[in-house]
């Protein structure tokens, strides 16, 4: 089953399947023989029925030589230069004082213009191809950007990523890793500027040659928004540029929300282990004839987790008569009717489904059942809610 690279939905519409094609923009052949014998790679593009993202289901990133002589993008056209200048002016308006990092900066043409417009910008490029070794106008590392390592090392205020994400096999992981690690390192005011080709014009005008193996992803404004919003980035602005051929957008990270969710999960993990230990001890301390109320679903999970085995706790009842005569999975107690078990005196009732406690208490009172105490799990302990 094919799932959308952006939103994860599996409902897709066949869009374009031209069959195997050679790489068109990366690893440009240096001679005729290499050109005509260039390997071909399968292309089968589909469109997500929900976010409109267009992607190649047959793409494998390992087949694309990003670390070689990879960038052949022409950056000198007059209209394109005007587009880059317009973009840079918008970035300049942010007045960011922390480091700028350009992820996949290619030949660095955009960053050269950026440095001219913002001479005080502390700029660092990451580029895995050999283009990095030719850049002299600003520091550039011939390496991939690794969020866990590089966000801590450089603590940037702005990430720039132009014409890179459409090449990625797992774009949601890339953006999510950046969001997560920035939040862990306390980067509360991180901006992310992104630019990708827009597939909309190609779809409307049937420009079949816009579909490239190197571009596993073909974005629409909706799918780009979905990519970043899922990772807790809020959109500051999003526009079409260069006559609608590109989408560029600025996002701001909601680091607090990520830390809040992470902290809540970590706290629960710690408290869950304490709860397991406490409940095992408390189960061993229960004396007398004990009835476990509830024998399947979350009740069965409760009985198994906290060691309520069939030897010390043989009596299990359930409010649902359809479950009577069946057995608790994992521990083996026979699920009996309320009438059968309460025909003899009961010391303790343990309600095994706290979320149904009120309904069970109502049933106990309605049936006039006798007991000494009722216990229910609350905040990690078995608390007495009725009785002596």
Describe the overall structure.
It contains 11 helices and 19 strands. It has 388 residues and is α/β, with parallel strands linked by helices. The longest helix is centred in the C-terminal third of the chain and has 31 residues. α2 crosses α3 and α5 crosses α8. The chain folds into 2 domains: 242 residues, Vaccinia Virus protein VP39 (Rossmann fold), CATH 3.40.50; 101 residues, NAD(P)-binding Rossmann-like Domain (Rossmann fold). The strands form 4 sheets. Strands 8-7-6-9-10-13-12 form a 7-stranded mixed β-sheet, with helices on both faces. The chain has a 6-stranded mixed β-sheet with strand order 16-15-14-17-18-19.
Q: Could you spell the SSE succession in H and E letters?
A: EEHEEEHEHEEHEHEHEHEEHEHEEHEHEE
User: Architecture of the largest domain in CATH?
Assistant: 3-Layer(aba) Sandwich
Strand residue content: 15-25%
Counting DSSP H or I runs of 4 or more residues, the number of helices is 11
Q: Please compute the radius of gyration using only Cα atoms.
A: 30 Å
Give the terminus-to-terminus CA distance.
58 Å
Number of domains: 2
CATH topology value of the largest domain: Rossmann fold
- The CATH class of the largest domain: Alpha Beta
Strand order of the largest sheet: 8-7-6-9-10-13-12
Using DSSP, what is the number of strands? 19
What is the general shape? elongated
Mean pLDDT score: 92
């Amino acid at each position: 089953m094919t799932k959308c690279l952006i939103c994860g939905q599996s409902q897709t519409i066949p869009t374009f399947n031209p069959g195997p094609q050679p790489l068109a923009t990366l690893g440009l052949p240096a001679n005729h023989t290499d050109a005509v014998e260039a390997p071909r790679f399968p292309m089968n593009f589909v469109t997500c029925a929900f976010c409109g993202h267009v992607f190649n289901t047959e793409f494998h990133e390992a087949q694309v030589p990003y670390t070689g002589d990879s960038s052949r993008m022409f950056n000198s056209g007059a209209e394109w230069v005007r587009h880059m200048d317009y973009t840079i002016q918008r970035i300049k308006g942010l007045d960011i004082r922390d480091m700028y990092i350009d992820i996949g900066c290619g030949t660095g043409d955009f960053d050269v213009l950026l440095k001219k417009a913002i001479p005080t910008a502390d700029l660092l490029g990451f580029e895995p191809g050999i283009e990095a070794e030719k850049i002299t106008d600003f520091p550039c590392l011939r390496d991939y950007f690794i969020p866990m390592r590089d966000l801590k090392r450089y603590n940037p205020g702005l990430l720039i990523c132009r014409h890179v994400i459409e090449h990625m096999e797992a774009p949601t992981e890339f953006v999510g890793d950046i969001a997560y690690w920035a939040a862990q390192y306390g980067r509360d005011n991180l901006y992310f500027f992104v630019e990708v080709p827009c597939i909309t014009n190609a779809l409307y005008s049937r420009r079949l040659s816009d579909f490239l193996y190197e571009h596993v992803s073909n974005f629409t404004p909706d799918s780009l928004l979905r990519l970043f919003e899922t990772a807790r980035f809020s959109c500051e602005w999003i526009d079409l540029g260069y006559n609608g051929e590109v989408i560029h957008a600025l996002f701001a990270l909601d680091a607090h929300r990520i830390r809040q969710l992470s902290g809540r999960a970590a706290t629960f993990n710690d408290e869950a282990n304490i709860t397991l230990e406490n409940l095992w001890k408390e189960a061993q301390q229960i004396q007398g004839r004990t009835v476990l109320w509830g024998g399947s679903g979350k009740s069965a999970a409760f009985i198994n987790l906290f060691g309520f085995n069939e030897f010390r706790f043989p009596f299990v009842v359930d409010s649902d008569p359809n479950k009577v005569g069946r057995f608790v999975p994992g521990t083996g107690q026979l699920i009996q009717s309320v009438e059968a078990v309460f025909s003899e005196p009961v010391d303790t009732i343990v309600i095994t489904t706290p979320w149904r406690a009120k309904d069970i208490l109502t049933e106990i009172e309605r049936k006039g059942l006798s007991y000494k105490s009722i216990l229910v799990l609350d905040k990690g302990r078995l608390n007495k809610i009725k009785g002596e």
